[in-house]
Amino acid sequence: MQVKVNEYPKTWKRTFISLWLGCFITGLGFSMTMPFMPLFMETLGNFSTWQLNLYSGLAFSMTYLSQAIVSPYWGSLADRKGRKLMCMRASGVMAFTIFLTGLAQGVWVIIFLRFLQGAFSGYINNATAFIAGETPRAKTGSAMANMMTASVSGNLLGPIFGGAIAGSFGYRVPFFITGFMMLVAFFLTWVNTKEHFKPVAKREMKPMKEIFSQISNTKLIISMFITTLIINASLMSISPIISLLVKRLMHGQGNISLVSGIVAAAPGFGTLLVANKLGHKMDEIGPEKVLITGLVVEVLLFIPMSLVTSPWLLAVLRFFIGIADAALLPAVQTILSVDVPPAAFGRIFSYNQSFQASGGVIGPLLGSFVSSLFGYQAVFLFTALMLGFNFILVIWSQHRQVLVKK
């Protein structure tokens, strides 16, 4: 149920701050543990390089795979029970599974817990849907952009804290700390957020076919789902090869780990720098224009990345990629929150999460395949091609929207 306009000022800011902190904790916890997962798994047995890569890849992708499968169910439940309950479900179960991961004695236990974590995760996505229903429409763009800064900030700080903790106390301790922090996010969401939601009986819920019939341009919504998949796939396709490419660019000399960390973190700094400003710009000119501009900029940046000969030039280009990233997913989420009936927020955002998770599964596989056949830098050209296709898709769906309105 959509809140009334005069109810917004009373609680939405406090709810926003609490959910922002919850998303920050989620991003921080993820990046505190995932970069060191292969090193942790290596301590659990005698593995060949091939085995360790396989187990690490499974531990990484299983979360996205299970998330993609079950997200539509959680979305349907969110429309019946509310987004607050879904945030509590995600943070509560993640606190449990991440803590248990720190106690694991075998790689298959970790892989199972990662699969279980993915099946019950989704705090950030549900928090985004939650605040989309609570925020005044005139501030939706800036709210979506600022929500993105929460997880990005956590992702930037996590490797620093995780590395320091793991180096001093061992690889298990970051999992214990993350589990505790997710418990904090659970209680923060439970106690300090308020959702203006009226439960809907399952028999009274409109089927998705009817929901889509109420949307003036369903192709725009579908294109946003595909856009989410491609954006995440393009981001994830690059991640597995960054350190290997940096090593090649540095000819195996120098502090490769430090430089790789800087290159990997560079987009996050760009996103933080402009996310709030781009959010306000979306409120002024509309999210579609911001999305299209962001896609064009990313295509133009990924092409020269395939030609870099210096890791520092790569870092600079990735910094600007981060600026463009700030225009992409928040714009998609703003379009969805504006064009979708409030009664279907949970289901639509969960479908979007499924596409995002699918990108997390597809991206690394495509990146590995392309780099194996054509080399690391060819991945950048392939990513530019994907984003170029995405640009054409968005232009086409926007053109369809104009025709529908006429």
- What would the CATH topology of the largest domain be? Growth Hormone, Chain: A
Query: Which segments are poorly predicted (pLDDT under 50) over 5 or more consecutive residues?
Result: 1-9
Q: What is the makeup of the main sheet?
A: none
Beta-strand content bin: under 5%
Structural class: mainly alpha
State the distance separating the first and last CA atoms: 29 Å
Supply the CATH architecture of the largest domain: Up-down Bundle
How many domains? The number is: 2
Query: What is the CATH level 1 assignment of the largest domain?
Result: Mainly Alpha
Instruction: Determine the fraction of residues in helical runs and give it as a percent range.
Output: over 70%
Shape: globular
Can you describe this structure?
The structure is a single chain. This protein has 406 residues and is an all-alpha fold. It folds into 2 domains: 1-192, MFS general substrate transporter like domains (Growth Hormone, Chain: A, Up-down Bundle); 208-406, Growth Hormone, Chain: A, CATH 1.20.1250. 81% of the residues lie in helices and 0% in strands. It has helices spanning 8-33, 37-42, 49-81, 83-101, 107-120, 123-134, 140-169, 173-192, 208-213, 218-238, 242-249, 256-285, 287-305, 311-325, 329-339, 345-374, 378-405. It is globular. 50% of the residues are buried.
